[in-house]
C-alpha cells in the first residue's frame, strides 16, 4: 500500500509505522519503505532520514536501510530541490528494484510518499507513476484541522483522476486545540467512498506502536 497525505506534516510517518505494527499484530509480515526522503543527516553508514529510520524500526523483518530509503537527500526541502542541490537524478528503476527486494521479505510493503499527493518525487516524476508501476492501493492520511474536508476531497479526487485506487483513509489529530474532530471525521467519512481505517490521537511524542491500536484493518 502507498501512504499519502492531504499535506506535509499531517502524520504520514506515524500512520505508516502504525500500519506496520497493526499488520504485524494481525499476523502479517510487513516492512516499510520511504522511496525518496529529504532532510537527512550524515552518519557513519551514510545519510539517514528520521522518517525512514522509524519505518525500518517498525518493520519485521528488519530490512536494509538502502532498500527502505533508496534516495536519501540531505536538504530539508521539497525532494525536487533537494535532488537538484545534491546533484542526484531520482529514477523509478532503483525504486522498483528496492520494492521488489522488500516484497520478498514480507507479506506487505507499506510505502510512504512525500508531502501531499501532487508533490512530485522528482522533476517530471509524479507519485502516481510509482503507484501505478507498483500496482498498489493508496491510503490517505487526513490531517484533522480547519480546511481538512476540502483537502481530503481534493486529494481523493486527484488520486482517482490519476488512475489510482484509494482504499481507505486515516484521520490524524495534528492540532491539540482542534475541538471538532468527531464532527469532521463524520463529514469526511460521508464524503469519501472508502472506509476510515482509524483516527490517530494527538501525540506530543509520536508512538507508532500505541497509535496502531487506533487502527482497524480489513486483514
Automatic annotation (TrEMBL):
Q: Name one Pfam family in it.
A: AAA_26
Task: State the pathway, as annotated in the record.
Answer: Cofactor biosynthesis; biotin biosynthesis; biotin from 7,8-diaminononanoate: step 1/2
Binding of Mg(2+) occurs at: 13, 51, 112
Q: Which cofactor does it need?
A: Mg(2+)
Per the record, what are the reactions this protein catalyses?
Answer: (7R,8S)-7,8-diammoniononanoate + CO2 + ATP = (4R,5S)-dethiobiotin + ADP + phosphate + 3 H(+)
Entry function: Catalyzes a mechanistically unusual reaction, the ATP-dependent insertion of CO2 between the N7 and N8 nitrogen atoms of 7,8-diaminopelargonic acid (DAPA, also called 7,8-diammoniononanoate) to form a ureido ring.
Among Gene3D superfamilies, the record links this protein to: P-loop containing nucleotide triphosphate hydrolases
Instruction: Write down what this protein is called.
Output: ATP-dependent dethiobiotin synthetase BioD
Which EC numbers characterise this protein's activity in its record? Answer: 6.3.3.3
How would you summarize the oligomeric state and partners of this protein?
Homodimer.
Binding, ATP: 9-14, 51, 112-115
Residues holding substrate: 38
GO molecular function term, any single one = dethiobiotin synthase activity
HAMAP family listed in its UniProt record: BioD (MF_00336)
- Superkingdom assignment: Bacteria
Assign the protein's first listed, main location to one coarse class.
cytoplasm
- Active site positions: 34
Gene Ontology terms: cellular component: cytosol
Q: Where in the cell is it found?
A: Cytoplasm
GO biological process terms, alphabetically, are: biotin biosynthetic process
Q: Which family does it belong to?
A: Belongs to the dethiobiotin synthetase family.
Instruction: Give the UniProt keywords, A-Z.
Output: ATP-binding, Biotin biosynthesis, Cytoplasm, Ligase, Magnesium, Metal-binding, Nucleotide-binding
